[in-house]
């Protein structure tokens, strides 16, 4: 028995010694057969993953508006590109398409100023329309809705003037609704609430609100009856050219904006588009007409041809893409051939705009209804549809 046991021990030791001499690249000799069987499916699946896959090109859908690849070179003298502060530069690498933050409505407040505090709601020690709106629709506000973004910006356009000097009045444009709200007196918060309820809230809530209480849902929906509290509301028929010139927020737009404003006014007039600088004239109910101060140049009625208003606006996002320009083409605007402008009722956002681009933007977009692809940040259509290339 002892000899048999010793012989068995020698055989086992010999097997262990031989196994230890096997090359490391051949581990299968050390694995039991059952373990090998369990690993074979893994080996096969790994082998299959290494087979190159075929990729099929998905045809891209053309944009729902006419485009031109690049802005044409200027044919006339344009202003020189102003020199920027050395520590600030323009981002020429990032693709512009899609850099516009989506929004449902943009409120453009008429302030008559060309620059503002870094945070516009802090103007006049917080007593301003932007602050009132953000109190209602901003984060934590009574009508706050994260699925219905309202953009609020200040503009250099003057407000419609009320007849009584003691009444402070603010006016506002709404886009892409293309509405002008002339009377938002500062003496009452009711007008601001009527603006929010009647024009800014959605008519239909996002499905994410399905679990809200009926009372909460009702508060977030638009109230058509609230519109009756705001007098003199009218459709916007002017082309609006908005240029970010918020130097109090970023020096790039503060430097480039005023130069672009001058060039747009000059080149629009060159194309027989009249420039309007005064307050919008509103002829509302008789009891409000007598409160209006109408100057002779403001009483001019649009006889023929197109008109435009060019103004500076506060921060809209993307200072690194200065100059930032928004064009709102009014519904019903027609081209020289009598056909409706394909971009009528749309807002088109451009970035990296320089003085050399202004003539091309006027001819291609304002007059020709074509989006310039290499400047395009995004757009919005009347009704709220977001435009992308």
What does this structure look like?
InterPro entries: Aim32/Apd1-like (IPR009737), Thioredoxin-like_sf (IPR036249). This is Altered inheritance of mitochondria protein 32. α6 packs across α8. The longest helix is centred in the C-terminal third of the chain and has 20 residues, at 251-270. By secondary structure, the protein is an alpha/beta fold. The protein is built from eight helices and 14 strands. The protein is globular and about 60 Å long. The chain has one domain. The N and C termini lie far apart (90 Å). It has a seven-stranded mixed beta sheet with strand order 8-9-7-10-11-13-14, with helices on one face. A five-stranded mixed beta sheet has the order 3-2-4-5-6, with helices on one face. Strands 1-12 form a two-stranded parallel sheet.
